[in-house]
Design a protein that fits this description.
The complex is a heterodimer of chains A (about 280) and B (about 375). Chain A is α/β, with parallel strands linked by helices. Helix content of chain A is about 30%, strand content about 15%. Chain A has a single domain, classed as Thiamin diphosphate (ThDP)-binding fold, Pyr/PP domains (Rossmann fold). In chain B, the strands form three sheets. In chain B, strands 2, 3, 4, 5, 6, 7, 8 and 14 form an eight-stranded mixed sheet that branches. A five-stranded mixed sheet of chain B has the order 11-13-12-15-16, sandwiched between helices. Chain B has a two-stranded antiparallel sheet with strand order 1-9. The chains are: A alpha/beta (about 280), B alpha/beta (about 375). Chains A and B meet through strand 2, helix 3 and helix 5 of A and strand 2, strand 3, helix 3, helix 4 and strand 10 of B.
Chain lengths: ~280, ~375
């Protein structure tokens, strides 16, 4: 028998709404790991906590806004990015992060995503990609690999998925990277880096969803998916966004390319101003 | 060239421009919108004016994003606005609900055109008035004003911002193509004579617990804090408690939605505006609003000159519906006529309130209803 260890304090108590714990996520889910990286990055950032703002859309990843102990806005499905844009342009002193999922940001919110990247508006996007709609119970989404099973694709997904770094690179983002929930140090460092990077930044975080995606697609549990990450992940050279090389299908023994794909300095969006503010 | 913030003086401008100047005068410093006829001149004018006064103009990718962006800007403390027409209003209904639920003030201008769907893009309509009332899902109360002149496009835009801030609610300015494109004299008062009612702020400093949705005042409006003020607030479109945290219980839901509705119903007298014409000894009441009210007033004046005791109530407020004013006047009337550029929307509300049938002078839109059919309706009931 193992004995549970009870601790009085958690290292993230300052930045997490501990009165809202336990969270809603399933055992084996990767979202909490990514949220922890975000929280740690806030604590290590040069920006005071009260100047950090997070917005989320709808879905499991959208719940992150409700758990962060900073100014936080849990908005409508797909609209976290334009809401964040409004906050940032109204008060440019704020460090505005959008934390949401692939279905929210790329399907229903896809138009806002590419246009915010095109404008290069100074908001930081952390996009959890778990290859499916988890909150509603395992439907296919814009990142689901072709052929994968979902509750709305019982015979296999007939559609091709988006390749997110490729999409964001083409749309104009200043910074595009991909990590997994196994790469916690790199992910935290990358979030921290984007805080100091003007313009639109986008970090894709591959995360296990054992209940929604894994169980239908022969990935036994969260740990098994983490094992797949460890076996298959390959760090890519900066600037390499060859689409074919970046397709992710966990069901196949294919490499998963990770790292910083884009790091450039296009001018960040600034509204036209004719008087000093 | 740097221009003044408030263009005090007499102008000869169209309604859309008057609306834009009203926004600037009211202190609006954020506009997020998407071009759509016949509201586009508001965006064009603000694209020129907002950078001159230190404000932000952004043309968004669509109306979904426009509405989300103005809510975000308002959440960060700026007075914000968008302008659209029917097809755009349909898209804004999604985040209108978010504005209601998060109690974020903003102003949404709808320069109505003939609808449904693409309809007649360059021609007037008044058929969005029920969508303004009920267009987003769920139970809520909304505030909507209907200007009938370029002067009111200015005045009611200012008022819309004040009411939005006072009651923490999105406010509609339900204009129409006629009023939006009509050129008339507009008098802009000196800056110090432009009313400003700001948002309630909490009295407690930002350390320690703060409940952003706790409404302790009689008006049921909680004080508002903005992003970056240090209160570390949480806002969610989920049903939430006074702390702002999700509360998935029927009790919390009933309590929240009831307050959101009651804060408008309880303060309706402070919100509602109407205007009466020729009401002395009137026995036939014409109810109208927006551009149609201009024809209706002409018809009533003509009827009076023919000895018919007609009078008119102009609804400056559409929502909350001026039920007290309508009921009080209806008591003494032999007949009620509603003139509107749709096939019967506000007339239903009038019937619901007075519990008797009303005569409708309707047109589906595309051209202003002239005075004649309204006068004919008056003469028929007078005969």
């Amino acid at each position: 028998m193992t004995t549970p260890i009870v601790v009085e304090n958690h290292p993230l108590d300052k930045i997490i709404r501990s009165d809202r714990m336990p969270h809603i996520w399933c055992p084996g889910c990767g979202i909490g790991i990514a949220m922890r990286c975000y929280g740690q990055a806030i604590l290590e950032s040069q920006v005071p906590e009260e100047k950090h703002v997070v917005t989320s859309g709808i879905g499991c990843s959208g719940r992150v806004a409700g758990y962060m102990y900073i100014d936080s806005y849990h908005t409508t499905h797909g609209r976290a990015i334009p809401f964040a844009l409004g906050i940032k342009l109204a008060n440019p002193e704020l460090m505005v992060t959008v934390f949401s999922g692939d279905g929210d940001l790329v399907a229903i919110g896809g138009n806002h995503l590419i246009h915010a990247a095109r404008r290069n508006v100074d908001i930081k996007v952390i996009c959890i990609n778990n290859f499916n709609y988890g909150m509603t119970g395992g439907q296919i989404g814009p990142t689901t690999p072709k052929g994968a099973l979902g509750t709305t694709a019982p015979y296999g997904n007939p559609e091709l998925p988006f390749n997110l770094p490729y999409l964001l690179a083409a749309s104009g983002a200043n910074y595009v990277s991909r990590w997994t929930t196994l790469h916690v140090r790199q992910l935290k460092e990358d979030i921290l880096y984007t805080f100091s990077k003007p313009g639109f930044t986008f970090i894709e975080v591959l995360a296990p969803c054992p209940v929604g995606f894994g169980k239908s697609n022969n990935i036994e549990d969260g740990l098994e998916e983490m094992r797949l990450y460890r076996e298959r992940c390959i760090l890519i050279d900066e600037g390499d966004v060859r689409a074919e090389a970046l397709v992710i299908d966990l069901r196949e023994n294919l490499p998963i390319y990770l790292g910083r794909f884009i790091d450039r300095d296009r001018p960040a969006y600034k509204p036209t101003q004719m008087v000093a503010k | 060239m740097i221009e003044r913030t408030v263009l005090t003086g007499k102008h000869f401008i169209h309604g859309d421009e008057a609306c834009a100047e009203g926004a600037i005068a009211a202190g609006c410093r954020f506009f997020g919108g998407y071009p759509i006829t016949p509201s586009t001149e508001i965006a064009e004018h603000l694209a020129r004016r907002l950078p001159q006064v230190g404000g932000v103009f952004i043309q968004m990718e669509d109306e979904l994003g426009s509405m989300a962006a103005i809510l975000g800007a308002s959440a960060a403390g700026m007075r914000s606005m968008t302008a659209t027409s029917g097809p755009g209003l349909s898209l804004m209904m999604e985040n209108l609900g978010l504005g209601i639920m998060l109690e974020i003030p903003c102003v949404v201008v709808d320069v109505q055109r003939a609808a449904p769907s693409t309809g007649l893009p360059t021609m007037p309509g008044q058929s969005d008035v029920m969508q303004a009332r009920w267009g987003s899902h769920g139970d809520y109360e909304i505030v909507a004003y209907a200007p009938w002149s370029p002067q009111e496009m200015f005045d009611l835009t200012v008022r819309s911002f004040n009411i939005a801030d006072r009651y923490r609610i999105p406010v509609f300015l339900m204009s129409d193509e006629v009023v939006g494109h009509m050129v008339e004299r507009v008098v802009i008062p000196p800056a110090d004579q432009i009313e400003f009612t700001g948002r309630k702020h909490p009295k407690t400093p930002p350390n320690g617990r703060f409940d952003p949705f706790l409404a302790q005042d009689i008006d049921l409006v909680p004080p508002m804090v903005h992003a970056g003020e240090g209160y570390r607030i949480h806002y969610t479109g989920l049903t939430h408690d006074e702390r702002g945290y999700p509360d998935m219980s029927a009790e919390a839901h009933h309590r929240l939605v009831t307050r959101l509705v009651e804060k408008i119903r309880r303060n309706a007298d402070q919100i509602i505006l109407t205007e009466g014409y020729y009401l002395d000894n009137a026995r036939i009441l014409i109810i109208s609003y927006g551009c149609t009210a201009r024809s209706a007033r002409r018809a009533v004046r003509e009827a009076r000159s023919r000895g018919i005791p007609a009078g008119m109530l102009r609804l400056i407020s559409l929502w909350p519906f001026p039920e007290k004013q309508v009921k009080a006047l209806a008591k003494d009337m032999d007949a009620l006529i509603v003139a509107e550029m749709n096939l019967g929307q506000i007339s239903r509300e009038v019937e619901r309130q007075v519990r008797r049938s009303v005569i409708g002078v309707f047109h589906a839109g595309g051209a202003m209803i002239p005075p004649e059919p309204i006068l004919n309706a008056i003469q028929e009931v007078a005969a």
